[in-house]
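Researcher: Quick one. six chains, 1392 residues in total.
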Amino acid sequence: MPVVVTDIKRADPDTAAALAEFGVATVHEAQGRTGLMHQRLRPIYKGAAISGTAVTCTLPPGDNWMIHVAAEQCQPGDILVAATIAEAHSGYFGDLLGTVLKTRGVQGLIIDAGCRDIADLEALGFPVWSRSVCAHGTVKEVLGDVNVPVSCGGTIVNPGDVIVADDDGVVVVPRGTEAAVKAASEARIAKEEKNRKRYEAGELGLDIYKMRERLAEKGLTYVSQAEWENGK
Amino acid sequence: MPVVVTDIKRADPDTAAALAEFGVATVHEAQGRTGLMHQRLRPIYKGAAISGTAVTCTLPPGDNWMIHVAAEQCQPGDILVAATIAEAHSGYFGDLLGTVLKTRGVQGLIIDAGCRDIADLEALGFPVWSRSVCAHGTVKEVLGDVNVPVSCGGTIVNPGDVIVADDDGVVVVPRGTEAAVKAASEARIAKEEKNRKRYEAGELGLDIYKMRERLAEKGLTYVSQAEWENGK
Amino acid sequence: MPVVVTDIKRADPDTAAALAEFGVATVHEAQGRTGLMHQRLRPIYKGAAISGTAVTCTLPPGDNWMIHVAAEQCQPGDILVAATIAEAHSGYFGDLLGTVLKTRGVQGLIIDAGCRDIADLEALGFPVWSRSVCAHGTVKEVLGDVNVPVSCGGTIVNPGDVIVADDDGVVVVPRGTEAAVKAASEARIAKEEKNRKRYEAGELGLDIYKMRERLAEKGLTYVSQAEWENGK
Amino acid sequence: MPVVVTDIKRADPDTAAALAEFGVATVHEAQGRTGLMHQRLRPIYKGAAISGTAVTCTLPPGDNWMIHVAAEQCQPGDILVAATIAEAHSGYFGDLLGTVLKTRGVQGLIIDAGCRDIADLEALGFPVWSRSVCAHGTVKEVLGDVNVPVSCGGTIVNPGDVIVADDDGVVVVPRGTEAAVKAASEARIAKEEKNRKRYEAGELGLDIYKMRERLAEKGLTYVSQAEWENGK
Amino acid sequence: MPVVVTDIKRADPDTAAALAEFGVATVHEAQGRTGLMHQRLRPIYKGAAISGTAVTCTLPPGDNWMIHVAAEQCQPGDILVAATIAEAHSGYFGDLLGTVLKTRGVQGLIIDAGCRDIADLEALGFPVWSRSVCAHGTVKEVLGDVNVPVSCGGTIVNPGDVIVADDDGVVVVPRGTEAAVKAASEARIAKEEKNRKRYEAGELGLDIYKMRERLAEKGLTYVSQAEWENGK
Amino acid sequence: MPVVVTDIKRADPDTAAALAEFGVATVHEAQGRTGLMHQRLRPIYKGAAISGTAVTCTLPPGDNWMIHVAAEQCQPGDILVAATIAEAHSGYFGDLLGTVLKTRGVQGLIIDAGCRDIADLEALGFPVWSRSVCAHGTVKEVLGDVNVPVSCGGTIVNPGDVIVADDDGVVVVPRGTEAAVKAASEARIAKEEKNRKRYEAGELGLDIYKMRERLAEKGLTYVSQAEWENGK
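Model:
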């Protein structure tokens, strides 16, 4: 039975919104390297960096009807996550639907299928992470679900989870963990900044992370070119 | 027998040139969702939007000789469509051939293979939609055809058809239908503008297109999260 | 036995640095169409054009430890070439490692795997040619080699070879041939400039390269559309 | 926190086992065209057709440790579902692990990554549906989860769900729906058999399903070749 | 306007049927290396080798309605060619439709999309060349065309053309050329048999085709390993 | 300068021939998980398992001339390794060339491109590992090299190295290491057989390899389903 779940619980909106600044790579690391979507999901234009709470929907092949249904369930600060149930490249989404969602305050769209009108969407300032850019139109005949757990980009998204998306891709932060992930992201950034300064001063990871001993234990050997050519 | 057809009939040049402004997605819709090339054909730089009449050629694997032959058949306002007869990624086209075609007033190139010198081509202002960016050179040994019907990007192109290409991809408008497609594109744009205003005012597709009843008939059910968790 | 070769012989640094201005397509042609890496290796941002001497390393699946080891072997003017021993898309490289390499005067990275932090790397001005953009992190558990011959992007790279990389891709110039390749590149550019002028004046390749006779010998026939339709 | 859930609830084992006879295509249809894994998952040999209850695990890139952990959680009649958290092709599974699972009465393996020793696995009679065949070995360094919900082949699998796999691919039947899906599968088969007899007698779908009127309403026109050539 | 062309002209049926024995590679060569479909079209089982006259149809994304319409237009000895207008992997065809077509004497199906029920189709003896094996079902909502020229597998197929398909793939022979292609195939086979005997007797292509002189002219040099290592 | 190196040093022929029995996965492990070719190289038929010494050649795009040249350099027990310098899918090799090589006692072909006549090659008993099956023909116009180091399937092959190929893929054993790899393969097989017996007796890898303690140290936790649902 196709359903629309209407009153989903969302992650804390302020925390959700704050995760964008850390970026996908850091958030993904901060939560233990889980929740990253497949690299096939790419932004339609560079430079967008967003985060927000997920409204989810599933799309039958070549059918974008449920995006219209899902739009009504979206609130300001949300990100729409449109999963497919079969590999799909058609253009399920264009600038008119972008206008609908932007008007409702939606931050962006993650869609494991095709997107079209990408120049207009960039002009509108509505970012989309998609599998393809494709103008092929879709129909409105078959139902899917809205706000159920979905598999999108090879990872599970529950409605109300936090989505973070930038030029590096898309990551999902499960609802309820957003505060801990924010704290871990801040800690990671702080540590990285410290290391960055040491790197800029010319230090090496070999010394900062004390790798030399462990490399030697594992058997790494330093040889001259002459030794290598003879020993080969 | 390899042939060059020299006096092809072209679609009306003014109408052909006018289709660019509607864009690929609209033109594709306006003619009943036919003629779109596969999404693997991507522009080598963003922002180009062209339309014009097709000169066609076929390319044997790794051989770009027929592009030189086809160049002579091109007139101002044309777009060259280079089809391959086997999957190919070599760089069949670069800035020198771009200079040849631009000098003749050609609008751009559609090639179901690789392109190189993409920075130079962007500087030259000669747009290319290609399958790959690849510097590997080609030879001039085997003949193909010029101005015969070709299969390019998964669709048939007849010489003299109209090609429309932008950031969304490439679509083919059969010669003889260009006026009707232009009219249908104008009508579609007008309708979209009306709907865009309603969208910007906060209306939903569910109401504008009166979808609610049909969704209910098909069995779409709205439930609360609590209901969904129990009912599951 | 995993090894690090420490005192590799490098191609002449001035010649290595000079090849960038010719670009990948020209250098590839100038050395007889060899040494081009697969088109899957794409720059993470447009407009970078570099050349330099190769430091090489091999990466086990999901493990970027050897990049830290290789960093120490890099000198100003080098380009790091990171090969994988199995298909890999994880983000082996990000802005911190970019800082390390940039601080050492490295020109850029060629990696047959994923890269992350691409916005930060563009801001830093450290170009990367990679197979994917992917935020998935890597571990530091398994050894590889540094400065041995590697297979990267479908071609062999020996440490000390010259790498040239731009928007068209990546090409390898074997150490010892760099001066000859530079001379051949200059000759090619000079010849291309002469032909470009003729193209700009409206001449065709058919005439410049005297192709018409050979095309006729191979059997190319020019027919009118009417003839073609009847003869078909 | 990586966890192993030890006492999962399983779908009814007899019903789970019975679904194999209907096959993937029928079961997928019978449950409303949901739950099908991506077509990239292919059997390592033809002719295997199994069904059973899912034990799930997640695999870090290039690391098969959790298959050993999951093996202990498997019971006779189970099917192991090994999801990955990043695109992976290494050979996470071979004939030794096949021996472990077969000894425990496991029906087969679904793995969204690579498999090796495929000739030995066929000789052993242990079927695997995998993304690749690849001999590259894996390590045992990083933890994942066992018996949590996973995203495998683009669909969600909960531990205890029913898996059906044959030459057409893999489909997931949610625990609790298996009896209804079995009944619907039986009904579908019965209906198909009736239609098959009519097809074998030379009837057409156009008549059996009374399509002609609806096709005409949608505008399908029958024309002679002469009419089509003129009307074109 | 979607059309069904009802009285297409077919290639000579006896010649069409006779081409299967030569095989795809020989027929493709015999007609000058044209008309080969892309290698993504693979047989669902090994060993089938067919030829016959094409009935064509186009399939909208995820919609197999037109296969039912096309079935009525098929005669004994035909091969159905189902083209798509967008990349598609769903299972548009299964054993029931296979029964319909086999009952009408159709030789097989070429479909640039997915196929399901492949074990049943093999048992039925109805061969299919498809892009994917995928159980995902399709709908019957949108019209396409029957017996118009189509672009399938990257090549143009006109209704009534001859299709040849075997383990090497699929090739199209234009109607009207089938007798000449048959004669050329016979000549090619005869010549190959003669060369095969010489090969079996230990002769080399270098001598049979007198390649040595031309290789030397092009600059091929024979060196000893010692020379090569020094000269390198 | 294209060269043919005529008197390459080969690995010990008896040891080379003996490696086939261990299989690709074992040999790959025995030499430290190096030298495996990419999984895109698949056998054209199942069940072949060969090993032998490599004769190498490079193939320009769409040109198979050098296979004829390489054939003359092959001796009984060799395996021909044909690398490409650009992505290629044409059918560079068919049953006639298969006859040439089989007559010379060659064990099989590894080709990072397309192969045709696969039914005939299976009947002939000449196995090929290729990237594609494709009937598209090639030309004989451009030179490559024979018996130089090549990059094939993402790994370096030196002439005279040992190649092992079976249903799991292809692995390269560097000349000079074949005896050590054989010994390591034997040791690995012996150890695996011992473990297989324990597995068949119902023991788990967790106990055989004493993994439980290390898993706990890394933080793996066992929980009941109830605990997991609450703790979530």
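Chain E has a mean pLDDT of 97.
Researcher: Thanks, that's what I needed.
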